[in-house]
Automatic annotation (TrEMBL):
<keyword id="KW-0520">NAD</keyword>
<dbReference type="InterPro" id="IPR051712">
    <property type="entry name" value="ARTD-AVP"/>
</dbReference>
<keyword id="KW-0328">Glycosyltransferase</keyword>
<dbReference type="InterPro" id="IPR012317">
    <property type="entry name" value="Poly(ADP-ribose)pol_cat_dom"/>
</dbReference>
<dbReference type="GO" id="GO:1990404">
    <property type="term" value="F:NAD+-protein mono-ADP-ribosyltransferase activity"/>
</dbReference>
<dbReference type="GO" id="GO:0005634">
    <property type="term" value="C:nucleus"/>
</dbReference>
<dbReference type="Pfam" id="PF00644">
    <property type="entry name" value="PARP"/>
</dbReference>
<dbReference type="GO" id="GO:0003950">
    <property type="term" value="F:NAD+ poly-ADP-ribosyltransferase activity"/>
</dbReference>
<keyword id="KW-0808">Transferase</keyword>
<protein>
    <recommendedName>
        <fullName>Poly [ADP-ribose] polymerase</fullName>
        <ecNumber>2.4.2.-</ecNumber>
    </recommendedName>
</protein>
<feature type="domain" description="PARP catalytic">
    <location>
        <begin position="353"/>
        <end position="570"/>
    </location>
</feature>
Amino acid sequence: MERFIETGASEAAFQILEILQYYLDISLLDKSPSQSEIMKYGNLQKETPLIIFFQKQQNYQNILMAIQNLQRDYDILGLKLTESSLLQRQIDQFSLLQIEEEKQLVSIPRENQIQEFSKEDQDLIDIYGDRIKFVEWYFENNDVIQRQALQRQKQKEYMRANINQIHQILPKNFKFFNEVGYQCLSPEQSKLIENVYQEYLTKGGLQETFIQSGDDIYSIRFQQELYQKNQGWRIVNSISQIGRELFRKIKLKGPFQKQKTVRFYLINPLNNNVLEEITDLAIIQNLKKAYETVQIKNKEKTQVLQFRGEKVILYLNPQALHDIKLLRLDGTGIYTLLPKTSSTKWDYVATFKPTARLSIQSGQIYCKELLQSTSLEYQFVQQKFISTFHDNRIRQQSSLNNQINAAQLKPNILRIEKIYNCVIYERFVNEYKRMLRKYTNLQPSQILKHLFHGTKETQPQLIYESETGLDIRFSRKGLYGEGVYFADNSAYSNTYCSKTTCNESQMFLALVLVGDSVYQPQNQSIRIPPLKPISRTDRYDSINNGQGGHYIIYDNLKSYPGYLITYKSY
């Protein structure tokens, strides 16, 4: 305590001093805390170790960084600070002391050990069932995070003591839960632990398994008595008997995609307070492009751009992406920007869920929505369409068939319309649910694909206005018989596009349930997929032509005409 007082070092030191005083009063002097102290610091059991008490504080990360700063600047641990060569030794010693203490502790159970889902996620589970749940197991490894923070201090790089910035320097297999760092076990290890955990839930008693990491063997034991004793599940080193908290997290894997959005905020570098959000679209576009480039290439980047009516130099360091600098050319100052990333989930299937006004009873079963070019769905369809329009496989086929060489065409998307049809949607979703239940060995992305389809002489509105959609009854005999044909590239479907009265080209990007698909050689007599081996009734769901990227279905249940693309080729 004397060392804290001697520093006279800002508010952080006195906050730490207050917490220490409270801890000593309760744990050593048996004083009774006041109600205001309990509300401020929380309940404290006498046997609670100091590091755990610190971790329970709402501003734990600020406390930790403050201690590290005080150690560096004022030698609060009593280690002599002289030559720069000793600085690393001090920091390493402090880190090791903390790591070893953490390893010996029995940690406090997290409130979200029993995971609750958001309404958005629960809606997805209600639609697709438990099949889309994916379990990951994590173990507490907070010392790695602290080492990273200390490493950044050692390199004298500025880092604010904020949990959001620490997130950005973590390895991909690390996550924060309740401001404590956890490392994800491998998929194989997670699956093994989950199987034993489910056995414990079913049978009770003691269920145990072992995993290996390097030369170490770890045991995981599930038993009600152990859970109550340790206040949570533990992963224990079989040699040292050091245990760490084990954390179970359920993620959803299904027909959806996450959209990450980055926003940039101007901050006051003196106190880290946000001054304002950057809203200028031109500046945001330049910042996003530079930010993403540095993330991908992992190299520093400088760029001159306009900011607030003047030219500034943008500087991005891949090791400090939380700290973006804009340097004024006249040398009079620096702007500091803070990027914040958020993500939203886009469901490939539920996005077509019709509104209440569409119903077979009302007689209005369909409607269209014109997508905005800035929307995620528009960009998703656009990318698939443009990137596959010059497919090499189709150039070869086109030259053989004396058709227009796709390489000479430049597509220009005029509009993308999203199709809602309550009858086709209900039938399609039910078929998808059936497949998810049936094919537990297949990922949802293997069962459902986005594929292109050209309707040739049939006008698209006759398809999306109907109750059957892409109807097998109107199909013509092709190289694989009488089926509905789809391609994974727009180049092929362009040769089968329909035309509007304005000579515009149109094709669908459809959702197709290829399910368990099988390669077959060309055969114009095919009317139904072949039987599976050793079965007299179970058939494959679709046929494909291998590397050609074509899929053929033979019923009306397995496709949804999701997006109508209108374009011109020049």
